[in-house]
Specification:
Blueprint: H1 10-22, H2 26-37, H3 51-62, E1 68-73, E2 76-83, E3 92-97, H4 110-116, E4 122-127, H5 145-161, H6 200-223, E5 230-235, H7 237-249, E6 256-260, H8 272-275, E7 282-288, H9 292-307, E8 313-318, H10 325-342
Parallel strand pairs: 3-4, 3-5, 5-6, 6-7, 7-8
Antiparallel strand pairs: 1-2, 2-4
GO molecular function: hydrolase activity
InterPro entries: AB_hydrolase_fold, DUF3530
Organism: Pseudomonas aeruginosa
């Protein structure tokens, strides 16, 4: 009796193998379709560090570690540089506030004074400020329902007042997309949310809060050394922030303010001539006479001081020496040291009203 095999012949399996190879199972197709329908994962871009942070990291590598202090202000950390007085007993501490784009060891004013004042018996503390008006987005406040309704009605009325424009096909021509208009940017879908708008008012407010928090943390550190006197010295726009801090916070521990080549940050108020005379603190206003704008600004501050009968406001004029930067910084140091010797207001008393 011939043997009987239960296995199919190879020729019978060939069509099945071909079908399995070229026709994927239904569950494979479903998985592929689900993968296509799933939106792509958002690309996480690395946070861009501020220029001031990069400069601070460079100083941390270059300068001795024993003079570095990392302080906290709110949710962020920042660098300060501390130097003790080169005398047995310190006269006090001078807190140096740099201007826009300047570091805690800036070669103009901040760095030279930071290193020279300890020889005159003063401790120094310089700090890093955030980038001027950081570009971090600040969401614009949501418009009210009434405003949104008014805008909608105005848009509808504007559309109704315009005649229908038809092209050759009898329909209104489609508006050009951004890409078609030649901007070089791809057209965006209607449901894609636009980037959050930046409210300049909120941006300036947020920047001022960051600066004030850093000044407060720096002053707290200086007070831990129990100094005889605390002097706040600002250079450039740092002079504005030093004066504004004193005007808003009115700290009882600080009775002396030094302004060096004072400037007002762009779009910020109030002006220095409106703010400084009202402080009634011992104030040294150091300015360079070479630029007309600087002379005019100094004149306004002097006139405001006279109107307010400021008891201890002194202006010191200097000459810029661009051909000899070292001599220019030595000139500034000698003038600052002279003011500290002659006009310093002791913490035990304030200028008479």
């Amino acid at each position: 009796m011939p043997a009987f095999s239960l296995l199919p012949k190879p020729s019978a399996l060939l069509p099945l193998l071909l079908a399995a190879a070229f026709l994927p199972p239904a569950f494979v197709q479903a998985e592929e379709q689900a993968a296509k329908d799933q939106p792509p994962a958002p690309v996480e871009r690395p946070a861009v560090s501020e220029r001031s942070q990069d400069e601070a990291k460079g100083l941390e590598r270059q300068l001795p570690e024993d003079g570095q202090q990392i302080l906290k202000a709110g949710d962020e950390s920042f660098l300060t540089l501390w130097l003790p007085a080169n005398t047995a007993e310190a006269e006090g501490v001078v807190i140096l506030v740099p201007g826009d784009g300047e570091s805690p060891d800036w070669p103009q004013a901040i760095g030279p004074l930071r290193r020279k004042l300890p020889d005159a018996g003063w401790q120094t503390l310089s700090l890093a400020l955030p980038d001027p008006q950081s570009t971090a987005p600040v969401t614009r406040p949501a418009e009210s329902a009434a405003s949104a309704s008014a805008d909608k009605d105005a848009s509808a009325a504007d559309s109704a007042s315009k005649p229908d424009v038809k092209g050759e096909s009898g329909n209104a021509p489609a508006p050009e997309s951004t890409a078609e208009a030649g901007s070089g940017e791809p057209a965006q879908s209607e449901d894609q949310a636009p980037p959050p708008a930046i409210d300049p008012v909120e941006q300036r407010k947020a920047h001022a809060e960051r600066v004030m928090a850093r000044l407060q943390a720096s002053i707290d550190l200086a007070l831990q050394h129990e100094p005889k006197s605390v002097v706040l010295l600002g250079h450039g726009t740092g002079a504005y922030w030093a004066a504004r801090y004193l005007a808003e916070k009115e700290p009882a521990e600080i009775h002396n303010l030094l302004l060096v080549a004072a400037e007002i940050p762009r779009d910020f108020r109030p002006a220095l001539e409106d703010m400084v005379p009202k402080l009634k603190l011992a104030t040294g206003d150091f300015y360079y006479r070479d630029a007309r704008a600087d002379r005019e600004a100094a004149r306004l501050r002097m006139q405001a001081g006279k109107r307010q009968k400021h008891p201890a406001y002194v202006q010191i004029v200097m000459q810029a020496l661009p051909a000899d930067p070292k001599a220019e910084q030595e000139q500034l140091y000698r003038r600052i040291r002279g003011w500290l010797s002659l006009h310093l207001q002791a913490d035990a008393q304030k200028p008479a009203e």
